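Troubleshooting: if your tokenizer reports a length mismatch, compare against these two reference records.
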Amino acid sequence: METWTWLVEHIVLVAPYVALVLDVILRVTAVLVVPRNRRPGSAFAWLLAIMVFPLVGFPLFLLLGNTQLPRKRRRKQVVVNRLMKVRAHDIPDSDLDEDSPSWLQSAVALNRELGAYPLTGNNSADLEIEYEASIRRMAEDIRTARETVHVLFYIAGLDETTRPFFDAVAEAADRGVKVRFLYDHYGSMKYWSVYRPMRRLLDAHGIEHYPMMPIKPLRDGALQRPDLRNHRKLLIVDGEVGWMGSQNLIDSAYASAKGAREGVRWQETMIRLRGPIVSEVNLLFGTDWYLESGESIAEDQVVRPSPDTSGTYECQIVPSGPGFVLENNLLLFNQLFYSAEKRITAVSPYFVPDESMLYALVTAAKRGVEVELFVSEKGDQFLVDHAQCSYYTALLEAGVRIQRYEAPKILHAKHVTVDDSVTVLGSSNMDIRSFLLDMESSLMVGGTDFMEKMHEVEDVYRSRSRELTLEEWRTRPFWKQILDNTCRLASAIV
């Protein structure tokens, strides 16, 4: 008691020494803890933040420094991954066409090892790049549902654009179709004006729905990272028709009246699937449903023989996210980039690669591969927009062509084409967040016929873009270069 009284009376004298001791403890602890099992770039960024502002940086590290799922989810994910491998064996394997390059078979084997999903043949696939048209077409498919409708979107909300979709979902539920609906907690809730009406509609029609990755920082009794998100976009009807891609379930101005007035619109790419691949999409949905609801959907509702095997495309699902040991999407992209012989076209709204991907693209360009990168001229995220700009100089100097989708539109599509052999499209950006923090879904499609469809899409995007030259980029203001590089350093803190 006397000691405490003395400390209170001499707080002004003692406080500097306490602060000094705490400062030293935080810095030493950071050096011992931060680099453990972390990329050198990320570790350096965290250490820099902690050394400059230890009383701020260290608490942020405790909050945001762990990229793992919560303990309970990790245990569930182990069960899910095991179950996924077992059920994936019931999906028939397919062989690539004889004229497929040998390296494509290596990519297929890599995907099977990382994500457990086989390559399937006899699939049909159509692309849709018109925003409202894709929502109308998905609604039309839902209206044909007889048994099940499975919906999963990072952002979902009820507005005038999405009303046809939700009306179709409500009608399906009212006639006895089992509807399961998932949406990311943070991704959807931040659009409160459309999020709340959506939940009311789902409840009114007795539709079972769950927010994915609910934000509960102290869940499992430990401080947990709030920005681990489920970024997938999936729709499966009766296990026969599947949709996936980059588009969220919200109007194309993202509920922004100001953006709508200024002409801001998101440009997306969605793919509609039929054939055996739909079982893979459905199985991926089933894993997320189990994680959120605790219900394991019966196998005959998830993996079933396809009634339509008239297609000619080979397809394979590639799931990725913090529930996997490795960055599945990053490994696939890099494998394809190093294998490319003629051409790489990459479309990514958020392009913040790690060093391995940057080197893969630069190496491809240096060895004569024609590399073209599509990004948005106008970014919707300040930090990411400036961070990705910091990579343009190295890419342009290597010979990469950079196409900037002209403002005020925002190119939000995400896909890659390599030579005339393979396409990868889905929800995954080419940024560190998509590699480490977000649960993503990608689809690899082989075949020159599908590549022709993709080239038509690329031609549309190219007609709406302006090519950035190295000469032009070198003339940008010095203060912008400093800002870009600063944001690049901040983006490494994961």
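Reference record two:
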Amino acid sequence: MKQLSQAPHRLYFFLGLVALLSLLAWWWINLQFANQLPVPLHGILMPLGVFPLFILGFTFTAGPRWLNVKASTHHFILHGATYFVGIVLVLFASTFGLKPLRLSGFALMLSAWVAVTLRWARLIIESKSEDKKHAIALLVAMLGGILSMLCALLWAAGSELAWQAARQLSFFAFLLPIFLTVCHRMLPFFTANVLQNYVTWRPYSLLATWLIGSWTLAFAGIFGTNGSDASSAAQGIQVIVATLLSFSFANTSWRWGLFRSFENRLLAMLHLSFAWLSVVFALHAISALGVTTGSATTHALALGFMSTMLVAFVSRVSFGHSGRPLHAGNGLWSLYLALHLAAVLRVFASFQATDSLIKVSAGLWAAVFIAWGALMLPIYLRPRVDGAPG
């Protein structure tokens, strides 16, 4: 276990996988046996439980290089353990109906996230790098994480109005901006390292447009549910912004080399996941127009884009930082494609409201992540295969 303390990504990825598998088990059991599904908790806890620990693993591995600073490893174990324990407490409390303990769990998650956000802000201040745009974009998104977790805490304390804010902020002010920032910086970089004669294209104006659009959707989603005139205006804004984003992501996916990326499976995994975004926001626009889509948009975003991108990025970082070849074998490639299938099934289930299809998708999603966890967890518990530190 001492290997987990050798580098931040080891601990954060390890705890992230354990949290992810725990959340999947909790939800799968509820789908099979619960008389009444805890859907509101599921809608908040899954985004705030599945992704943040992995985000920290990437941020404090690649981020200091972006900023050209040497990051202290002090407190990363405390911060990671605190966030993880918060997730566990929420799960335990929800299972046994202990609302005060659930509140404590969300409070621990919030406190840990405040601490890591301050730590990231200090690194930005200490950095002498001339280009801090991606780092600052990450910081703004991490502040969005604080807002979303604060709303989740308020909801756990009894404020029903805070649920919609927590859900919208968690996806569109927190997670999506982080994913977009990382993709904007890293996808062209990774692609240029693999493909010959590749022309890197990643204007900062493009990233700014994405982030402004994402935050706009967050607040339009919060205010667009009460049936008032303001609600109608918010829905109109969502139609326009989501449509523009859908076209932007489709164009970017093409310009970044989606089809050429299949020359290398590990690279193709990143590009295939990014391609989901044009579908996600097409669904978002259709939903805002009044077409009944159920939770199709949310699951296309969370499962189609974020979960598959998580597998692609974490696999690449884990291979690279453990001295392994940057190569996706048949096993990883098959698991990755199966995750896309699970996402497609869940999106179709949202349109059809089919319980059996939801259970099939959840079962496939769980099976894929169990297999992926079995592949990845040993990496974090063993020394690098090349003997290098880290």
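Descriptive notes for reference record two:
- The chain has a mean pLDDT of 94.
- DSSP finds 13 helices and no strands in the chain.
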